Every structure is written in structure tokens, then in C-alpha cells.
Amino acid sequence: MSGIPSFCELPLIGQFTQDNLFRYNQLREHSFTQTRPFMTDSTAKPPINWPGAIVLLSTPLIAMILLPWYALNHEFSSAAWWSFLLLAGANGMAITAGYHRLWAHRTYEAHWTIRIIYMIFGTMAIQNSILVWASGHRTHHRHIDDVDHDPYSAKRGFWFSHIGWMLRQYESGRDDFRNAPDLLNDKIVMFQHNHYLKLVLLTNIGIPALIGYAVGDVWGVLLLGGLLRLVWSHHTTFFINSLAHMWGTRPYTDENTARDNPVLALLTYGEGYHNYHHIFQYDYRNGIHWYQFDPTKWLIFALSWVGLTRNLKRCPQFAIEKAKLTMQFKYAEEKLSLQAAGHAQLEAWKAKLAQEYEHFNLVLNDWSKLRETWFAEKKLELLHKWEEASFRTRFQEIEYRLKMQRKRLRLLTAQVPSVA
């Protein structure tokens, strides 16, 4: 990230202009996603969302019947298996790099050719249009864990957050595009939204059929690269709404249910580092360390080398270290609170923790003063290249102090015995 770092601030998505207000009202009146009635009586079950229920419940059932039958009576070609792997990867990356990190969060910008590819393979994943998906996801982040407003709140249980929220027309899942004026003005997004059903049929039948014809195994590719790929793509993506809010660690924040889980990252192309994502949602990375499996990040970064992506957003290291340290202080305090009142080392541990917390506040104060000085210098246009380098060095020194304190705090917490 070039220049002097600052805290991750929520960027303005855009203004709700008269033009996209007209589009919004049109969509509310005519879109198939808005023509269904919504229940306002909280005591009654919402009506079934028949298109979603048919697709989501029938495809696994058909797969469980047809795939074993075909395997017993025929032989799947290696080309059919490769079609499954490659198309599942294309679907997954179109959702993670396209629907999610590009359109929902605007963590980077992409060339129109890349956006069209994302649109095609994202449509093939049958997870609704970009407009509906990204708008709903922004609502999820805004109302995280709110059982009345989060479309797929994990606090309503695994089944609801995984798939149940799509089977009925819940009020919390109602489309509201007022948070997506940028998408309403995106020609690629609106083309897909207005022709969604035709594109779904074309991509899910046409692409596998063409591949099957080319390799001489139409039915094998339709079953593996078409049917099994769709079921796999659905449920690996849905794990982020369900399991990633229930299973894993919370190293950055405990103010929501999102978890970091490297196992889920393997299944979801890097989306498993969900605790990080929910506190730093405008970072194009989910796995911030080199050893963390995040192929979506690698794809976006690699495309930037050839100019197909640009303006990749990264949250500054200081903000990340601050979040980690805040959580370590919380865990240390919780662990100390469980110790017996008469423990010989308890007061010494508390004193050390208080000392570390005082140091933490001093570092934060130094950071604030340094930022104020930098902005003042920048405003007066007195910042020369050597001065900018000096400021950057001082920022890095503060970040290093936080990193060292985090290690000391980890050692202090390890000295405190766990209480069964």
C-alpha cells in the first residue's frame, strides 16, 4: 500500500442519484425478485420461495440418484472429472473474486474482460444475480448477527444460515437496492440481472454440453461438470454463511460470530479467514499471511501484474496489530479472572498485564500524534520525499512495537495456568 498508512475507513459506494433511483424503483416494481409477497406477520411462516427451494433441494437429490446409477452402468471419463474440477474452480473464484471482493466490497478494480468472465461463471454458480447477491451481502455486513435484519444470521442456527434463508421469503432477506447505487449503474451487472434466467440456462446446460461434445462424453460432463459441480459450488459457498460463523477462532474481534478457519479456506478459495474479513472487509485479502491459503487473493494480485486489476486495497499493518492486541488483552483478562483469588502469582500477573496495557495506550497515543503531524505537514505541502520516508520509518517502528508487545502478552498469558 503506497503512501503513509491510515486506518481502514469505509469508502463511499456512491450517491443515490436521480437516475439510479429511477432504476431502483423500476426493479422494485418489475424484478422477479420483488414480485413475490413478503410476510409481515411475524407469527406466521413466510411463504415458500419456490424457485430457490426447487433448485436447492432437487439438485442434491437428483445427484444422489443419477451419479451412482451412471457410475454403475457407465464409466465417467477423466475429461468429465476434469470438467468438474475446472468448472467448480471457475464458479468458486467468480463468486469469491467477483461477486464478493469486487462487486460487494469494492476491494479492487478490474478490467471489463475480467468482469465479464466473473459474470459468466458467477451466473453458472446459480447464486442469484450480482445485484441481488452483493446488495444482500452488504446488508449482512451492516447488520451482522441481527436476527431481524441480517439475511442469513448465524444466530438463527446452522440450517437457516446455510440454506434455510433461501427456502422461504423472509423479511430479513428482502431485496433493497438502496445500498447498491454503484451496481445499478454497472452495465455488466444490470445486463446479467435483466437476463438472469436465460444466462443461467445457457451457462449451466450450454457450457457443459459443449465441453462434453468436444471430449466425446456429453452425459458424463453434464453429470459431473454440470450437476455435481453445481451442488458442490452451492454448499461450499454456503459454508461461509454457516460454519464460518460457528467453527474457528476469533483473533481480530469478538464483536460478531465470524471465525477464522483454515479448513474452510481450503474449500472456499480463501474465504475461510472470516473473522479478519468481518473487521477489515475492504481488504482484497482474506488470508493476510503468506502461508494462508487464499487463491482468490493470489488471482487478484497476479492479474494486477498484467494490468487487469488495479487499486488493490489493503488495511494497514498497524490497524491489524491493534486488533490482534486488543483481543489478546481480552483473552488474558478472561484467563486471569478464572484464577483462584489466593494464587501466589496472581497479583504479579495482573501488574504485568496492567503495565502492558499502559504501554499499549502509549503506542496508540504516539500513533495518533504522528498521524496528526503527517496530515498537518501534508496539508501545508511541506512533505518532501526524504520526509515521507522518515514518517514511514517511524510508522513502521510503532507497528514493530505493537508486534513485540503482542509476543510479550502471549508469553504472559501462557504463564497463567488454565482452569478446568
Q: Concise description?
A:
With 420 residues, this protein is mainly alpha-helical. The protein is 63% helix and 1% strand.
Protein described:
This protein is an all-alpha fold and 420 residues long. It folds into two domains: 18-39 and 47-310, no CATH class; 317-415. 63% of the residues lie in helices and 1% in strands. The protein has helices at 18-30, 50-73, 78-104, 112-124, 130-142, 158-167, 181-184, 187-194, 196-215, 218-241, 262-267, 274-279, 295-305, 317-337, 346-379, 385-415, and strands at residues 109-110, 309-310. Strands 1-2 form a two-stranded antiparallel sheet. The radius of gyration is 25 Å and the shape is globular. The two termini are 45 Å apart.
Salient structural properties:
420 residues, mainly alpha, 2 domains, two-stranded antiparallel ribbon, 2 strands, 63% helix, globular, disordered N terminus
How does the SSE layout of this entry go?
Elements: H1 18-30, H2 50-73, H3 78-104, E1 109-110, H4 112-124, H5 130-142, H6 158-167, H7 181-184, H8 187-194, H9 196-215, H10 218-241, H11 262-267, H12 274-279, H13 295-305, E2 309-310, H14 317-337, H15 346-379, H16 385-415
Antiparallel strand pairs: 1-2
Helix pairs in contact: 2-10, 3-4, 3-5, 3-10, 4-9, 9-10, 14-15, 14-16, 15-16
Q: What is the rounded Rg?
A: 25 Å
What profile does the largest beta sheet have?
Answer: 2 strands, antiparallel
- Measured by DSSP, the beta-strand proportion falls in under 5%
Helical amount: 55-70%
The parts where pLDDT drops under 50 for at least 5 residues are 1-7, 9-18, 28-42
